[in-house]
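Office hours follow-up: a student asked to see two folded examples consecutively, so here they are.
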Amino acid sequence: MDMLASVTFAFFLIFLISVPEGTIDPGIAGLAVTYGLNLSGVLGWTIRQLCRVENNIISVERILQYTCIASEPPLVIGAHRPDNDWPSHGEVSIHDLQVRYAPHMPLVLRGITCTIPGGMKTGIVGRTGGGKSTLIQTLFRIVEPSAGQILIDGLNISTIGLHDLRSRLSIIPQDPTMFEGTVRSNLDPLEEHTDEQIWEALNKCQLGDKVRKKDGKLDSLVVENGENWSMGQRQLVCLGRVLLKRSQVLVLDEATASVDTATDNLIQQTLRQHFSDSTVITIAHRITSILDSDMVLLLDHGLIVEYDSPSKLLDDRSSLFRKLVAEYTVRSSSSSAN
């Protein structure tokens, strides 16, 4: 910008010098030269104002976009509230479920139908883009179905409020979340449990000794995002939350994908011991973590390809699940060799 202003001012001076004498009044010429010295500042101010206007226009555009986003369904629907003990059995029935992320986008789940029996362990597997995470998001109504329905113990989850639904389900996500505060507030944010119950949950997830060594114990500080805890410990804190909540339906969304094998084994052992009567739905990153499940649901391109017990699928030579297990075994062997 300074270069442009200097070149323009230089051409202006050359022009003033080259004009015949008497054509321009000397006073006017001097005034023009004086104003020309401020040309760089004027151009800079103009550009800054144009950029500011452009940024403000973008802000208005964003606000208009947000106003067009549809609001979530109500948290509570007074006329359709579930019983206090719902879900008591944990049976999840899916009927002709179709899901897309936007009206103009293709279907991610293309009319799947199945029943996940209550109290059983079901693993959901498939290649990337098969629809595994979309199914879980639909279960929690983060994404609303385009068609079809999901019933939990015979109740259509689309007819109840979001709070009534999500407060009755539990999930251990792939990326564990911890909030700035204390150990107690991270395990029991709503202050619904006693210290004895919190310690019991910590002992079950093998974090009791670590918390006892801290100065504040349950009131010891947790920094933002739990940066003063390791990834495996953060995942165990999430496990402690679900142990406190004890929901009948528990979802593991690739919960052990980012932890070591020892932590994975600890989580699996704790779940088998304390959630033996609950419905556990597992999205598997490590195929071996669902081999002891009661049922395996294999999704591919938004459709159910196979749904049976792991032993039967492994015995079937044409089974896609058997091929996935074989591929995972080969990759694991190659990684160990390297």
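And the second, which I mentioned at the end of office hours:
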Amino acid sequence: MKKSLLSKQVIQNFFEGKTTQMQNILIQEWLENPAHRELYFQWLDEWELENPQFTPDVEQGYQRSLYTVQDGGGIPMSPRANAGTLRGRLFAFKWAAAASVALLVGAYLLSDFWLYKQYETGYGEIRTVVLPDSSRVTLNANSVLSIPRFGFGNGAREVRLKGEAEFAVKHTVDHSKFIVRTPDKLEVKVLGTEFIVYSRERGSKVVLSQGSVQLRSLNEVNARPMLMKPGDVATMSMQGRLTLKHSVSLSAHQAWKQRLFMFENTPVSEIAYQISEHFGVNVVVADSTLARRTIGGTFNASDPANVLKVLSDVLNARVTHTPPGGHGAETFVLDSNRL
């Protein structure tokens, strides 16, 4: 029943305030699915093209939807007599639809949902995205890129990253800046260049292959920008402290794009951490001496079991595998191969 009612025409009727109360409830349930929300915005874009007299005011509409949620009142599903022009009525109808989403996900989540489009990768997945300005972003596994739904490229181009990604930024004729922001308040600012940004729980990292980059830690008051040149690698600790290294070999930092792990005198404990964050599995190094050993080499990153099998052969160690079950994640234990 829901599938037959929630056709494209029904959603467009919703934009125009022509749906019934029952249809509004079904639409709210339908929007709980992320794939449906993306379809919702696709149909909304098409509807706006067919109604060119409507010009969205994102901030005003967003604040209006927040007021609706905080006030506890109902969602306005029909035009008001004092709406005036057709443009005003269309504005009211569209933001009524946005308010429906607000009631589903809450005022805080609405901000990201309505204002930002998200590109995500699962564990073990790599994905390339072309942005509206023709910049290219390649996402590593377990990463999220958020870009503004409205106004991207009008002035500064700002995106958010959680995880790891390589950016190939397109230089624009108006020299507009491209800014990457991370959850731990690292700001990466460029005009046109190629670089990698890593941002996870243990800190952030920027690897510059071409062009120039300006970094700033927003954790510090009046922080001075740090300039990077090709071959530089900058890291930011969990305390917000930036460190810059020059003339670094970048191959190990870029290997993930070819679905490879490349290690250069890397401790086994660090290798275990990288496998865990890439595949979403637990990797435990049970022997402290084994954890401190370092190795180098290139490993295929297609499957955690295969990586650890090769690693155990190199280290003359053994691997114990526990499949996922109940609330426990898949676990691999690497231990010395004592006789």
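Two things to take away from it. Residues 2-114 form one domain. The chain has three domains: 2-114, 122-250, 259-336.
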